[in-house]
Automatic annotation (TrEMBL):
Compartments, as annotated in UniProt: Endoplasmic reticulum membrane
This protein's record includes keyword Hydrolase: yes
Name of the protein this chain belongs to: Uncharacterized protein
Keywords on record: Endoplasmic reticulum, Hydrolase, Lipid metabolism, Membrane, Transmembrane, Transmembrane helix
One Pfam family from the record: FIT
GO BP annotations, alphabetical order: lipid droplet organization; lipid storage; phospholipid biosynthetic process
Family annotation (InterPro entries): FIT (IPR019388)
Mode of membrane association: Multi-pass membrane protein
Spans traversing the lipid bilayer: 59-78, 90-109, 218-240, 246-267
GO cellular component: endoplasmic reticulum membrane
UniProt cross-references to PANTHER family, sorted A to Z: ACYL-COENZYME A DIPHOSPHATASE FITM2
GO molecular function, one term: coenzyme A diphosphatase activity
Predominant location: endoplasmic reticulum
Species assigned in the record: Mycena chlorophos (Agaric fungus)
Amino acid sequence: MSTATRLAFVLVSTIVLVGTAYSVAFHTYLDTSNPLLTHLPHPLSKTHRFASKGNLLNVYFIKQAWAWTSGAFFLAWITGTPSTRSFLRLTRYLTATVTWLLFTAWFFGPGLFERVLVLSGGECVLSIPNTPEQLVVPAEFCHTRTSVSPHTHPALFASAPDSFLPGASDWHAVPRLRKGHDISGHIYLLTLSVLLLTQQLGPSFSLTRWSMPHTVAVYANIALIITWLFAVGTTSVYFHSPGEKISGYLLGLVCFVASQVPGLLIARTTL
């Protein structure tokens, strides 16, 4: 592990631990797995900009984190010299991408994040406007992100009291998985991104001179890494329970280690 990667590891670890401890000590975090709270604004959103899910960092960067990370990676990879534009670096990125897809999008059906949430006691719930009540529906409606309403799926609402049903005839909503252990996907992805980008800059730092395009690419990567570290801090302070943040961090480390395996196998076969 290079000096830069070790530094990134120390920074991410420190930010997650300090941010999580702060969130517990000062009660700043929102338990996003609690169905009674998750659809409400963060209690601090009016006084703390980054406690709002609608802040620019979250909307334009964190929610598109892997797209930004991918763009930064390929910008540095393409503009590098032939010696730094190695297949090994590409295998690390591709392996990390596969782990991201398995956890967030697909694992023989729902992604692993959703599977863990269900196995740990999560339920597919529907929040009805102007009431704290929750309607539990079959999990497949959450897995497929199907919009439901009393008109389109009357059987789901058959046992619900009249006071529970929304008044608007055109009302519909998409149920969400709540309760259970909701691993922090943001902490996971940001941890993985910081370590991956820092590692892939290592060969560039060994060069004596950079071309102008590569100089721009390196500084763009550094700027994004700093942005991701800041985002790790805001997520650690304002969102998810402590256990969910720590599990997201540990999972990010595991997936980063997994991204090194193909390179190690390739190196062994060439000996």
